[in-house]
Specification:
alpha/beta; Leu-rich_rpt; FBXL15_LRR; 667 residues; Leu-rich_rpt_Cys-con_subtyp; 27 helices
């Protein structure tokens, strides 16, 4: 009799999935780089699939560029912002590896390449539609001429390319006829002529940034004739004035967004001449410009589509605010940040006419009191963002109204106000709250934070800077109820200990942690953060005297995403700094007054930090480190900032307010 033997199938279920289905699965892992890495390391098949799936690449080291591009042959978007030194030879590597697949490249933080490398890039990668060359202070007209060969280019950023002149931008205008967006911010050698050439040749432009250019009204007629122009930025263009604007005959009907911040030489008369006929205008920014008068407000009365206006830093007249309140259509966004002249009466009148406001910024409007908050919350129940930092005359009772009436709030900034625990209890009704700033709020305690932690589960950003009533108990309540926290500032809270950091280590998405001036935290707590918060990118531990090399060893092992750290006044020595140098993504480091740091240790650490781009050091180290070594590091793209600051003794918790011109409250 024959025995039936069972055959065992060792088939991998993934073998039955098409590549398209697996690509779809990988798309869902875009927000978690660790997940993609784990996927690719599972087996050779997954390694190959992930290599072919990846379309976006942000390499950490330029010297590995060739190998990396060989692994990922279908890159469309290349971001080189963490590679400070990119030479022409490396751009040649990119051009040979990517060819017609590459559609965008970001070189805004890279230096040392020239027109030769750019020419190689655009000739091989002829499908390029986006190039960011911002901060290219060494790029000249030859570089612009090379870019002009990118015939399919649609978006070009040249901010701070201060050597490019009208000649260079003329080449771009002739060669890149498909341009839809161009940024020329701080290109100080470009004049009216260059802008006119651009407007004449590039008829498809939708977005044009001319911030801080030395232009006048002469180029404006050409700009206004652009039939598709939607976004125009004229920030800091001091050559534009009323006399010139009054001569304009053209109008730009397609214009949707206009920014004239820091333009001091025009009034409502010139502004109206510029936007006359712009029936689609949606957003207007006039920050740090002319006074907000009744005449200015009336000149904007008939722009029915206007939904966002920003007057930051302007002198505001009560008559101007009242005139805005009489506009026929409600604004969605309004900013009076740092405006003097905003009063209860005028603001209360305004919000009654703009009941559809979603975002309101009244930062440093120091004259407003209870009545303003009462009117805002009564009229604008759909507010999602309210910023009212340093509104110091608003009583604590007013903050209760926020939670009672504006429960759709997502962003709230009440820094340096009188809000107390009752206010926080009320605000906890805002279940969609994602950002809450409570810095320098002396009346809040753990009890208030417990309400936030229990009901605001979507909170991602929390600022408790110098809120001295907060202890470990309050932090624990927040971390327990808000596991998706990404940013937290608990600097200068002297009751915070390692227990808070251990609680925060539960927040696996934490990216930014500021604990400077917390004397009771130590390496134990920071090590817990390193283990639990693998996505940590920014860390400030200045004046955390009990943090030493042990914490640096933990960071080196677990915090491979760390980009920026401030170690000043800590107990870290050469050993800790050398360990930290193993973090591949580390770019920015501040090292002032480390007693255990020696010149040799510092030099060794700097050499080991391959991707470092910015280092802030005490000036006393400068003569102790060989000039040749400093030159070598600078040649690889690092910038040194030398500070001659004396050792600072920590201020009294009330004395700091006097230092900044604020009156400390009586005990």
């Amino acid at each position: 009799m024959k025995s039936n033997k069972k055959t065992t199938c060792n088939c991998n279920p993934f073998d039955f999935l098409t590549e398209e289905i697996i690509f779809t699965i990988l798309d869902y892992l875009n927000d978690d780089p660790f997940a993609k890495k784990s996927f690719s390391l599972t087996c050779k098949a997954f390694y190959s699939i992930e290599s072919h799936h990846r379309k976006t690449l942000k390499p950490l080291r330029a010297e590995l560029l060739s190998r990396t591009l060989h692994r990922y042959p279908h890159i469309e978007h290349l971001d080189l912002t963490v590679c400070p030194r990119i030479e022409d030879s490396m751009l040649n590597v990119v051009s040979l590896a990517c060819k017609d697949a590459l559609r965008s490249i970001n070189l805004s933080r890279s230096r040392f390449f020239t027109n030769i490398g750019l020419s190689s890039l655009v000739s091989s990668c002829f499908n390029l539609v986006e190039i960011d060359l911002s901060n290219g202070v060494e790029l000249n007209d030859l570089a612009a001429a090379a870019i002009a060969e990118a015939k399919n280019l649609e978006k070009l950023w040249l901010a701070r390319c201060k050597l490019i002149t009208d000649l260079g931008i003329g080449c771009v205008a002739v060669g890149c006829r498909k341009l839809r967006l161009i940024c020329l911010k701080w290109c100080l050698k470009i004049s009216d002529l260059g802008v006119q050439l651009l407007a004449l040749k590039c008829k498809e432009i939708r977005s044009l940034d001319l911030s801080y250019l030395q232009i006048t009204e002469k180029c404006l007629p050409s700009i206004l004739q652009l039939q598709h122009l939607e976004d125009l930025v004229l920030e800091g263009c001091l050559g534009i004035n009323d006399d010139g604007l009054s001569t304009l005959q053209q109008s730009c009907k397609s214009l949707k967004t206009l920014n004239m911040s820091n333009c001091h030489n025009h009034s409502h008369v010139g502004l109206l001449s510029l936007i006359n006929g712009a029936e689609n205008l949606r957003e207007l920014t006039l920050a740090y410009g002319p006074s907000v008068t009744a005449d200015l407000a009336k000149s904007l009365h008939n722009f029915s589509g206007l939904h966002s206006v920003k007057f930051d830093g302007c002198l505001v007249k009560c008559s101007g605010i009242r005139a805005i309140g009489n506009w026929p259509n409600s604004l969605k966004e309004l900013s009076f940040s740092k405006c003097s002249g905003v009063t209860d009466d005028s603001l209360s009148f305004l919000v009654q006419g703009h009941k559809e406001l979603r975002k309101l910024d009244i930062t440093c409007c120091r004259m407003i009191m209870y009545d303003s908050v009462d009117s805002i919350t009564s009229s604008c129940c759909s507010l999602t963002s309210l910023r009212m930092e340093s509104c110091s005359l608003v009583p604590k009772e007013a903050f209760v109204l926020l939670g009672q009436r504006c429960q759709l709030m997502e962003e709230l900034d009440v820094t340096d106000t009188k809000i107390d625990d009752e206010g926080l209890k009320s605000i906890s009704r805002c279940s969609k709250l994602s950002s809450l700033k409570l810095g320098i709020c002396m009346n809040i305690t753990d009890n208030g934070l417990k309400h936030i932690g229990s009901r605001c589960s979507k909170l991602k950003e929390l600022d408790l800077y110098r809120s001295l009533g907060i202890t470990d108990e309050g932090i624990a309540a927040v971390t327990f109820g808000c596991p998706d926290l990404e940013v937290i500032n608990i600097a200068y809270n002297d009751k915070v200990t390692d227990a808070s950091l251990i609680s925060l280590s539960r927040c696996s998405r934490l990216r930014v942690l500021e604990i400077r001036g917390c004397p009771h935290v130590s390496s134990k707590g920071l090590s817990a953060i390193a283990v639990g918060c693998r996505q940590l990118m920014v860390l400030d531990i200045k004046k955390c005297f009990n943090i030493n090399d042990n914490a640096m060893l933990s960071l080196a092992q677990f915090s491979q995403n760390l980009k920026q750290i401030n170690l000043s006044y800590c107990s870290v020595t050469d050993v800790g700094l050398l360990a930290l140098a193993r973090v591949n993504r580390l770019q920015n480091i501040t090292v002032l007054h480390l007693g255990g740091l020696t010149p040799n240790g510092l030099a060794a650490a700097l050499l080991a930090c391959r991707g470092i781009t910015k280092v802030k050091l005490h000036a006393s180290f400068k003569p102790l480190i060989p000039k040749s070594l400093l030159g070598y590091i600078e040649a690889h793209g690092c910038v040194f900032h030398w500070r001659d600051k004396a050792f600072q003794v920590e201020m009294d918790t009330k004395g700091w307010k006097l230092h900044f011109g604020k009156s400390a409250e009586a005990p």
